[in-house]
Amino acid sequence: MKMTKRRTLVLATVSFNVSFLLWFSFAPFTGPISQEFGLSVAEIGILSSAAIWLAPFGRILTGWLSDRYGAPTVFAIVLGYVGLFSMASAFATSYTVFFVERMIVSTAGITFVVGIQHVSEWFDEDELGTAEGIYAGIGNAGAAGGALLLPRLFPANWSGPLFASNWRAVFFYTGVLSILLGIGYYVLGEAASSEERRSETRANASVTDWIHTATRYGTLVLACGYLMSFGLELAMNGWLATYYRTAFGTDDLVLASSFAATFSIASGLLRPVGGYISDTLARTERNIIPLFPGRYREQWTFVSLCFIVCMLGVMTLAGQSGVVLLAVGAGFLVGVGCAFAEGSIFAQAPAMFPNNSGTVAGVIGGVGTIGGMVYPIVFSAALFGNHHLGYAIVAASMLPILGCTAWAFRPKIASVATEAGLLTHAGSREIESD
Q1: What are the DSSP calls for 298-314, one per residue?
Q2: Interhelix angle 271-284/253-269, nearest 10 degrees
Q3: How far, rounded to the nearest angstrom, does the alpha carbon of residue 414 sit from its chain's CA centroid?
Q4: CA-to-CA distance for 278 and 281, rounded, in angstroms?
Q5: Domain range holding 423?
Q6: What angle do CA 423, 427, 429 make, to 5 degrees?
Q7: Cα–Cα dist 246/260, whole Å
Q8: How many structural domains comprise the chain?
Q9: CATH value at residue 232
Q10: Helix/strand number for the chain, H first, E second
Q11: Under 8 Å between Cβ of 328 and 244
Q12: What's the pLDDT score for residue 384?
C-alpha cells in the first residue's frame, strides 16, 4: 500500500493511541491491584509516578533515533518490547517484579516523539499544528479509552480462559495488541514523504547537531511549558481515578474511572483545536494579547499555560466543596488547558526546527514527562488532611515557569531562539539590548 500523508497520520495516531492505552492501563485497576499486593494510597501514588521514570531519557533518545534511522523502525521496536513486558506483567506474583515490568511497559509513552517526528516528515509547515494536534490528541485519548473501556470489557467478575483477575487479562491482551501493531507499523510505514526530505533530516542527526538543538532557548522554554501541561496530564491520567475514589468515598471503579475519563477526553481530543488555533493565528498574523507583538504562536501558548494555572486553583476549590461533580467539571477544564497548551507547543516546535523535529520533540517530550513523576506524589500526599490542596500547590509551583516563558517569548529573544542558547549565544546583542 502506497503511503500518503493522511495514511501516515492514521497509522501513527492509531499506534500512539494504543501506546497510551498500555501506558495507563493500570490506572482503572488500582483498587484490585492494591488489594492483591497490599498497597496504600501513597504507594499507589508512587506507582503512578514510576510510570514516568524512564520516559525522559527514553523520549530524548528515541527522538534522535527517529531522525537518524526513521520512525517506522523505532516505533516497531518500542511496540514490540512493550507488548512482551505487558504480557509478562500479567503473570507477576511478586510486587517487585510487577513494579519493574510495569515501569518498562510505561516506556510505551516514548512513542509520542517518534510519531511527532514521523508526522512532521509528511506535512508542510502551515498544516503542522493541526496534523500534530490530531496525532497527539487522538493518541493521548488512549488514556480515556482505557478508563472507559477496560473496566467494562474486563469487569470485576472477569473469569477468562487464562486469568481469573481482570487486570491480569488486561495486561496480557493489550500486550498482544501492541506486538501486532508493531509488526504492522514496520511493514506499512515509510519514514518521509520523499527521499530528499529523509536525507535532510538524517544529515542533521549527529551528536553535535543534537547538542546544538537541545540547548537553544526555543527548545528549552517549550520543554518547560510542556512540563507544566503534558507532565500534568500524565499525572492526572494516573491519579484521578484514585482521587475520585478516595477523596469522595466511592468504591465503584467504573464510576471513578468514568469521572477520570472526562479529563482524559478533554486533554486528548481537544488537542487538535490548540494546534489549529496556533496555525490560524500564525497564518492570519493576528495578535490576541498585547504581550509579544508579532509572535502569534507564542501568544497562544502563553494564554493556554496561564489558563492551566488558574483552573488548578479552581479544582482545589471545587474539591473542597465536597461536590464531586464540581470537581469533575473543574478537572475537565484543566484538561482543556492542557490540550490547548500541548497543541500549541507542538505547532511551534517542528515549525521552528523543521530538520530536527525528532530531536526537538525528544527533548521537549522528555522534559515534559518530569511533571508526571513529581505531581502524583504531591497529589497523593494528603496535605493538611485531604487530597484537594495538592492542585493549588502544583499551580503555585508553575508560576516560575510562566515567568521564564514570558521572558523567552519577548520578540527580540523569540526571533533568535533557534540559535541563541545556553552554549551558543548567537543573537546575544539583540537579547542584551532588549
Answers
A1: HHHHHHHHHHHHHHHHH
A2: 20
A3: 24
A4: 5
A5: 5-433
A6: 110
A7: 13
A8: 1
A9: 1.20.1250.20
A10: 23, 0
A11: yes
A12: 63
Residue 178 neighbours by CB under 8 Å, 6+ apart: 18, 19, 22, 79, 80, 82, 83, 86, 108
For residues 17 and 146, the answer to whether their CB atoms sit within 8 Å is: no
pLDDT of residue 129: 86
Instruction: Give residue 430's pLDDT.
Output: 46
| The pLDDT value given to residue 164 | 83
Cell of 122: 509528511
CA distances from 95 to 51, 124, 156, 280 (A): 15, 47, 20, 49
What residues pair up with 194 in beta bridges, in sequence order? none
Under 8 Å CB-to-CB from 189, ≥6 apart: which residues? 3, 8, 11, 71, 72, 75, 76, 118
Expressed in angstroms, the distance from the first to the final Cα of the chain is 53
Which cell numbers in the block locate residue 96?
517487585
CB-based burial, 222-245: b 16+ in 10 Å, e otherwise = bbbbbbbbbbbbbbbbbbbbbbbb
Mean pLDDT by groups of 10 residues along the chain of 434 residues: 90 93 84 87 76 84 92 96 96 91 91 92 86 85 77 84 88 95 95 90 84 89 94 85 79 72 84 92 92 93 97 93 88 94 90 84 89 83 76 94 94 88 58 47
HSE toward the beta carbon, residue 154, CA cutoff 13 A: 23
* Region of residue 346 (phi > 0: left; psi between -120 and 50: alpha; otherwise: beta): alpha
